[in-house]
Amino acid sequence: MKQLSDDRSAHQVAGDLDAMRALMHDSFRYVDSSGRQFDKETFLDQFVDPTAIQWIAQDTVTFDETVRGDLAVVQLLLEEKFILGTNAYEGRFWMLHLYVKEDGVWLWQGGQATMINEG
């Protein structure tokens, strides 16, 4: 799972839409730290497409996984830096990612992000 999670991050930061699309389940759902909901295509448009977002860094601080059969739950603490539109963002986010195995292939089913307030 760690390698798959690292690959997901690398594809996202690189803006590789095709690689990310192949990694994501068709019924993908994601809730960002502002509570906005995304399906597969809207996530790709907002958080991967280099015309919308410019990633500076997405670094894994902590990683924990629980795998039960064809379901994996991954908990991450990520440090992220990116430019979205005209605004620059930097922060730590706790992420919960779900992966499902279909036909022997792990796919990113979705997840949820929470901004960590360290003040």
Automatic annotation (TrEMBL):
InterPro entries: DUF4440 (IPR027843), NTF2-like_dom_sf (IPR032710)
Signal peptide positions (record): none
Matching Gene3D superfamilies: 3.10.450.50
Pfam families in UniProt: DUF4440
Domain DUF4440: start-end pairs: 6-107
Annotated protein name in UniProt: DUF4440 domain-containing protein
Native organism: Exiguobacterium sp. (strain ATCC BAA-1283 / AT1b)
